[in-house]
Amino acid sequence: MAIVKNQSGSYVQFTVILIGLLLFPLPSRSSDPDPLQDFCIGDTKSEFSVNGFPCKPATKVTSDDFFFDGLSQEGNTSNLFGSNVTQANVVAFPGLNTLGISMNRVDFAPGGINPPHSHPRATETGVLINGKLLVGLITTGNVFYSKILSPGQMFVIPKGLVHFQMNVGEEKALTFTAFNSHLPGAVVVPRNLFASKPSVPDGVLTKAFQVDKRVIDEIKSKFGA
Ligand code: GLV
Ligand code: MN
After folding, report:
1. Alpha carbons 148 and 68: distance in angstroms, whole number
2. Ligand 1 neighbours (beta carbon < 6 A)
3. What is an example of a GO molecular function annotated in this UniProt entry (predicted)?
4. Is 23 part of any domain?
């Protein structure tokens, strides 16, 4: 790195370094970091908090740690949205700890919706197993992309973008989704805004949505808020 003297005699090394960093940025990660060992079965009960979970001692690891039965059962779709997301993330399946992957099973009643949401830590892909599913996503530039899928067809949702799926068929629908994070997180937009604890102030919501308080109260009441 060159050290340059300016006219007043002060060094401008800092400026040169800054320009260097702007022109040649350090590599950045777009998904979970790579593991540093074969496996690290998460000790989800540990009182230590790290970026992930500490590893269960290798001597205590058994075959069961690498298998998970949690996605084999149909989820209960008798709810407001007519859908159910069963998560196989590191919390449910500690064998995923540090591996940068996870899955969900999403069941839909006819007409059911997995409401608009985003995953702050992962890109999502999915394959439709049964039914007829409208899958949509909205970009940061407010462009809406969507398609109606048949069984065997796939979709991808770029990291962090708001998306939804809606069963537009006469029968139940089922999809399995996968993520490049062991804990993708989900911001479910209607719950996030209208059922947070404590609540977002009404004045914020009325102004943001350009409606009066009655509308906000009605929406909040649907979510028991
Ligand atoms: C579907 O969008 C899912 O998050 O599983
Ligand atoms: Mn999703």
Report:
1. 30
2. 85, 104, 106, 114, 124, 163, 165, 177
3. manganese ion binding
4. no
Enclosing H/E stretch for 214? helix 213-222
pLDDT at 16: 46
Residue 74 CA, ligand 1 centroid: distance in Å? 15
Task: Looking at the structure, tell me whether residues 43 and 116 fall in a common domain.
Answer: yes
Do 104 and 199 have their domain in common?
no
Nearest ligand 1 atom to the CA of 157 is: 2
5 in a structural domain = no
Q: Which ligand is nearest to the CA of 87?
A: 1
48-101 tens-digit pLDDT: 878 889 999 999 999 999 999 999 999 999 999 999 999 999 999 999 999 999
CB contact at 8 A, 103 and 119: no
For residue 148, report the distance from its CA to the centre of ligand 2, in Å. Answer: 16
- The span from the CA of 131 to the CA of 173, in Å, is 4
Enter the tokens of residue 135: 């899958």
